[in-house]
Amino acid sequence: MGGYMMHPWVRRHSRNSRIHFLGVHSEKDLCGHCGLDFFACPGHFGHIEFSKPVFNPLFFDLLFKVSVAFPLIVFASS
């Protein structure tokens, strides 16, 4: 592995040093996930665990429209 993956901070903060499974980071390496080279590997999605919920602000408008169209609280008539 080369490039920024060799930096000690990245190694120390990557979970079990498995960040190399996200794809190839230099032309000399092979992907740890699919085994393809730098030009053939499509890259792979990762998973990050946050301690608190994180919301994408680009979806706030859509979320508001959906919540108005389909309210979560339905009042029952007596």
TrEMBL record:
GO terms for cellular component: DNA-directed RNA polymerase complex. InterPro entries: RNA_pol_Rpb1_clamp_domain. One of its GO terms (molecular function) is DNA-directed RNA polymerase activity. It is an enzyme of class 2 (transferase). Keywords: DNA-directed RNA polymerase, Nucleotidyltransferase, Transcription, Transferase. Its EC number is 2.7.7.6. This is DNA-directed RNA polymerase. It comes from Clonorchis sinensis (Chinese liver fluke). The lineage of its organism: Eukaryota, Metazoa, Spiralia, Lophotrochozoa, Platyhelminthes.
